[in-house]
Amino acid sequence: MARKRIADMIxxxxxxxxxxxxxxxxxxxxxxFGMKYGPFLNFLIKKLCRMPDSMKxxxxxxxxxxxxxxxxxxxxxxxFEKKDLEEEKNSYLEMxxxxxxxxxxxxxxxxxxxxxxxxxxGVLIVPKDWIILNPELEGKCRYAGVVECRNHVKYDIPHFVxxxxxxxxxxxxxxxxxxxxxxxxxxWSRFKEIREKEVKLIPDPEKPGRYINxxxxxxxxxxGLFHIVRNDDExxxxxxxxxxxxxxxxxxxxxxKK
Length: 258
Description:
This protein has 258 residues and is α+β, with helices and mostly antiparallel strands. The protein folds into three domains: 18-50, no CATH class; 53-105; 114-257, no CATH class. 45% of the residues lie in helices and 13% in strands. The strands form two sheets. The protein has a four-stranded mixed beta sheet, covered by helices on one side. A hairpin with a 2-residue loop joins strand 1 and strand 2. It is elongated, with a radius of gyration of 25 Å. The two termini are 34 Å apart.
């Protein structure tokens, strides 16, 4: 801490040329902040270039999400509108580069069937038609899970996604699971009806390890909660189910450099 304070106290003087528009912008900002040029530039550098890594990753994720949204609009844009949108997307990528310490952040064309959501330190990528249960927690969690039903095509049941602070599905207790199921019912009224159609396995008293209603159970809409893997998890295998994954942008960029 002492070293940091000493470093901040050291002063370096140098001349600086500003373009007309930039000078106007600086004059407006320094007036509103009540600072002179030097203190304001130090303030700006500290807050923008020296922010905590967790904040940098959140801002990078936000920039990439905006690029994804712009891509959707570009599909139907022409002429000047298209040019403006491309410039806007490049501006987001330039800002992402600043947050990334000067290293360019790669942005690939989005799969139109997938959608991105902000995470605390990256982005969540899931199929576009999956229903988000707690959107108010977007950008506030490191993990996410999915509610999936076996035979979901047969019963026309959607997938549900939730943001969470719990990393693995094996750690979702009964109370937490029921809370998620309640959210599913709020978002999709038929969920309660589907749960009532679940067929629980009944052990066969005459055949240990077997069940008397296996066929009925397998044909029913069995519901389960699963965690969505992160690309920085030791269990990540580059082929997550349905393409659903949480991407730590810092890890993603380091892999691309290799």
